[in-house]
Amino acid sequence: MKTTIDGIDYPIPAPHCDPQVLHAPGVCRYCDAYPKWQTKRTVAKMLFTGELPREGWQPCAAEKARGMDSINAGPGNRPADSKGDTLVER
Ligand SMILES: [Zn+2]
Fold first, then answer.
1. How far does residue 7's CA lie from ligand 1's centre (Å)?
2. Cα of 1 from ligand 1 centre, angstroms
3. What distance in angstroms lies between residue 5's CA and the mean position of ligand 1's atoms?
4. How many domains does the chain have?
5. What are phi and psi of 10, to 5 degrees?
6. 87 close to 72: Cβ distance less than 8 angstroms
């Protein structure tokens, strides 16, 4: 299943509470379970959540809409390591 936000498809269930949040490969165990979506985002040249700006790439949709402080305010949006421990402290 999928949902479409601003013309971009996202998986349901999404790896995080905000379906627009997607971390780069190797950063987050939840997002690494969605390799096809990570590939789609790379092909679309959209930055992953929390990535630094890159020439020619569009910003992460979640960051553009809400900003990182708002995203990481929700524990369900934070990246997690292989043990499920969050990698962002608040
Ligand atoms: Zn993630």
1. 21
2. 18
3. 18
4. 1
5. -130, 145
6. no
Report how far ligand 1's centroid is from the alpha carbon of 12 (Å): 14
Per-residue pLDDT reduced to its tens digit, 4-40:
887 888 888 899 999 999 999 999 999 999 999 999 9
86 domain-assigned: no
User: What is the per-residue pLDDT across 29-87, written as a single tens digit (0 to 9) for each?
Assistant: 999 999 999 999 999 999 999 999 999 999 999 999 999 999 999 888 999 876 667 66
CA of 3 to the centre of ligand 1 (A): 17
Q: Is the pTM of this model over 0.70?
A: yes
CB 2 within 8 Å of CB 12: yes
Domain for residue 81, yes or no? no
d(CA 37, ligand 1 centre) in Å: 11
- The burial class, CB within 10 Å (0-12 / 13-18 / 19+), for 15 is buried
Domain that holds residue 26: 2-76
Q: Judge whether 67 lies within some domain.
A: yes
